[in-house]
Amino acid sequence: MKKRIGEILIENGSITSEQRKQALEQQKKEAGKLLGQILFEMGFVTEEDIVVALATQFNVPYLPIANFTLNEELDGLIPKQLIEKYICIPLVRIGNLLTVVIADPTNEDAIREIEVATKCKIQTFVATTSEIAAIIQQHFNIIVSAVPKLGEGLSQVSFRSAVTQKPELKSTHKT
Length: 175
Fold this sequence. Notes:
The chain is an alpha+beta fold. It is built from 7 helices and 3 strands.
């Protein structure tokens, strides 16, 4: 059985048991809102904390890509509309295997569509949505307009529930 996001965040040292308890109480008042969203809104965690915990929960490798050098030979491999739609970037291609960093690596429709477009088998990594969107804007000159606001457009597993902006963290956050 998969560990719950709150347990993973406690194990990672991102939150305390008391912070989880507070967020769970708040979640009872906000039906349908995910615990990670609430913890973020309360200022207890960062976007990266949530994405790392979700990557752990769903056994998908996390790759912080801020300092990653993109391979310009891959620039045209994934059509720009798919890059914007799925918030993804091609990283490495070895033969028929394409490594992609994507905001929601659990989105099977996205993976299939990218596989069809590239004629490659896709291996996914996850990074924060804001980090990927920034690189897409910088490298591909595409402004990602599809980045969901908190709670909108989430996949079943909700990697994209990691957020689009960072609030100021409260002083109760462990560093």
